[in-house]
Each structure stands twice: as C-alpha cells, then as structure tokens.
Design a protein that fits this description.
Shape: globular
Radius of gyration: 15 Å
Number of helices: 2
Helix content: 10-25%
Strand order of the largest sheet: 1-3-4-5
Order of helices and strands: EEHEEEHE
Strand content: 25-35%
Distance between the termini: 18 Å
Amino acid sequence: VLLLTNIYFSNYNKKKAKKVEYAGFVNSSTGKVYTIKWMFGLPEVLDIIRNCQIEEGSEIRVFEKFNGGLIIGNKHKRIAISDDAAARIQV
C-alpha cells in the first residue's frame, strides 16, 4: 500500500487533483478523541500498539502530553508513546 500525504495526486488524475491532509498525534490536543486513519513503523512496535486494541479506524483519546511523548488510549487500554512514534500515527 502506498500512502501519500500532503501531495497532489495530479500524476494519477490530471483533471481532479486532490490534496490529502492528515494530522499527526504530535499536533493533537489533550482530552480530544481522534480516529486513526493509518499508522506505520516497525512491525514489532505496531504489534504492541495493536495488542492494546489501537488500530486503524479505532477512536483514541489523548490523555496526557509530556516532553517527548504522549499517553494515548481507548476505553480499555492506555499506552505511552514517544513523539517519534506519534508522528507515524495519522488521525
């Protein structure tokens, strides 16, 4: 799967160029709920995140922001992730 963000798709459709915009968790606000559109990274890290029932299409709340990371979670689980990992999760 090829994921393109903030790029015009004019190479694919010259008549209807669209711009896709996603926001990363790094720019998120504490207390708000977001829906994960896509995420990428090391398979081992993604397996840990998915084992916490956090995956594409799920709703995630940002519980806390701290220097270098975030605490995110859903109704059942909470995890702390670094800003680097949060940048790879688009909402």
